[in-house]
Amino acid sequence: MHQLIHHIQKITGNRDIAGDNISQFFETKTFKKKENLLEEGHRCLAYFFVVKGCLRLFFTDSNGVEQTLQFALEDWWMTDLNAFRSGRNSAYTVQAIEETEVLSVTAANYDLMLAKYPVIEHYFRLVYERAYAASLLRIRMISRMPKDEFYDLFQSKYPGFIQRIPQKVLASFLGFTPEYLSELRKKNVKSK
Amino acid sequence: MHQLIHHIQKITGNRDIAGDNISQFFETKTFKKKENLLEEGHRCLAYFFVVKGCLRLFFTDSNGVEQTLQFALEDWWMTDLNAFRSGRNSAYTVQAIEETEVLSVTAANYDLMLAKYPVIEHYFRLVYERAYAASLLRIRMISRMPKDEFYDLFQSKYPGFIQRIPQKVLASFLGFTPEYLSELRKKNVKSK
Fold it and tell me: What is the DSSP code (8-state) at residue A43?
């Protein structure tokens, strides 16, 4: 729990958080590399905070290709948020890219925790406000930026990603073919 | 103010909101068609809630073309949220598409209001949670969906938009040429 409490303190600036009260809402779980935390077409029953490791969120397109739309490293939250909010089946699979430890919260506990602790409401307002603001930049990058500029910007904003994520998965996330990504990387190494 | 109070009640389910307390943080402003509420490169000093009308958010690309990334109809919030949060200059222009009435709040008043009224914190947590969840679907549509399917889905989700928004602006938002959009519309009319 220590890491989530630390993140709440960091985001809200509030040092006065009773970790014991918050921890009752969570379960700690560990997933192996390539293990699924949530599966497309199944009920979305939990929301995950990454303590250590890395997750990806993907769907399988009509050609059977896995299309990765999001990653979550340490201190990030991940689930199919629409399905989690509505109690419907998930449109996505969430999978561990490395061995990953998460804190898992059910929808019922998420609601209880938010209703009971104003600092948690404040924390999630800030988490979503940031994430929503960042999504506009992502939409701009995906839809309006030449692919090589997009890669350069992505690399400068998230250098940790490029090292940790398998080439094929990263290419899918960026909307590139693996061959095109490999060319870009070679060009980048040369120009350094 | 009536419309914002109604929206807060609708989103939070809380009927017990003191409109007088909230209204002190806002100014009502009216903008003519094509008037700018916020300009690219200028300080982002306000956040807008649309009471009546329609706004768009765009930037001007290196070819001098206006690229529209977002719209806001009634009950939607709009600003360059990154710039508003940080106090930096805006990367976008916000412009009225029709004559538009907004409630405008400064960053200082936004923070005050959130700190003072837990129901407002709750409201914005839900507004951003929804908006962030919706942004994932938008990213999926933009990056992974054939253009004609994207248009069909957009039309079914937001039928009001298609009528109210100028063709050229809608094409820019969808990432189409105006000619391609015009073809899609003709095809749609025929197939009905």
Answer: B
